[in-house]
Amino acid sequence: MAISDLPALLASMEPVPYPARYGYACVDKARALPDGVVPFATVAEDEGLTVVAPETELAAAGVAFQGGWARISLTVQSDLAAVGLTAVIATALTKAGISANVIAGYHHDHIFVQAARADEALAVPRGLAGRR
Q1: pTM to 2 decimal places
Q2: Would 97 be classed as within a structural domain?
Q3: Cβ 100 vs Cβ 89: under 8 Å
């Protein structure tokens, strides 16, 4: 069941890191994604299709990308109309000097942070949830 209460969201979330490094790429919207690229997320912008996918897949397909991103998923089912969860986490990451790119899925929110600071970044939402 989706949760909308911010304190309940913070207390219930269990941030999960993923071992793969991710990259961001921009490809032509009119063309199919290259074989072997299974995107985690796509965003259709005027300039092209932004693709977030594992670096290994992008590199193997010969797609230019900006890499070095780690994914942290907040494994709490937040209501799409919930207010404040990603703002609280983004603000805490900002205070720690960590860049955060947030992607909301239907069930969970996902934060992409610089891979070199992934462990430090993971401690931020865990701290907000009362876990270390």
Answers
A1: 0.91
A2: yes
A3: yes
Per-residue pLDDT tens digits for 89-126: 999 999 999 999 999 998 889 999 999 999 999 999 99
In a domain, 1, yes or no: no
Give the separation between CA 29 and CA 47, rounded to whole angstroms.
Answer: 9
Q: Measured between alpha carbons, how far is 1 from 131 in angstroms, rounded to an integer?
A: 22
CATH number for 76: 3.30.2130.10
Rounded Cα–Cα distance for residues 114 and 70 (Å): 6
**Residue 109, both tokens:** 């929110």
Give the residue numbers spanning the domain of 70: 6-128
Burial of residue 96, with CB atoms counted within 10 A of its CB: 0-12 exposed, 13-18 middle, 19 or more buried: middle
CA distance 99 to 22: 14
CB–CB of 10/76 below 8 Å? no
> Alpha-carbon distance 64 to 61, whole Å?
9
Residue corresponding to tokens 């907040």? 74
